[in-house]
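Appendix B, example 12.
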Amino acid sequence: LLQIRPIVDSKEMLDEDLNDIPDDEVILRSYNSLGHGIMNEIQDVVYVKTDGYSASNNQAIAWEIEKINQQFLNEGKNYVLVGPGRWGSSDTWLGIPVKWPHISAARVIVEAGLNNYRVDPSPGKHLFQNLTSFGVGYFTINAFMNDGVYNQEFLNAQPAVEETKFLRHVRFEKPIVVKMDGKKKLGVVLMPGV
């Protein structure tokens, strides 16, 4: 038997048009997102560094993410996870080969395409059941094609809680707000304090 769960619950529709939020007020904006609702308890963003990024390092990146995710589980906290390519892909040339337990503390997972690393989006295909079951947002952004916003410059300017060879972990003093409109497939992660 196949169990089908709705991604969007129509009684939870947002009263706000996310397109009205200016780009300078968002860290992330996706025009192709899964998930619905508002999250306002997340203070952390973990992202794959893109300077010198190579898909040949995707397995090593997966191991680093698994370690950081375990720290979040131990602390009972959640985070936004951003990286290039397809999350959960078994082909390490197409994305970072994580399994659900390696990223289970993430509340928003973002596929961010790069100018020199273009992979067709796979919005949560490998992780779909867990995304819907646990209410996790999934964003696809290709900012290099003006398809969404990924303000990595802002994240790079923040002090890192932890920085590894491939990852940076940024924590904000106050929670950041995530808004997702599942019917319009729009999602934003707002700047702190917005």
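The beta strands are 26-30, 32-34, 37-48, 79-83, 106-112, 137-141, 149-150, 160-163, 167-181, 186-190. Residues 6-13 have pLDDT under 50 and may be disordered.
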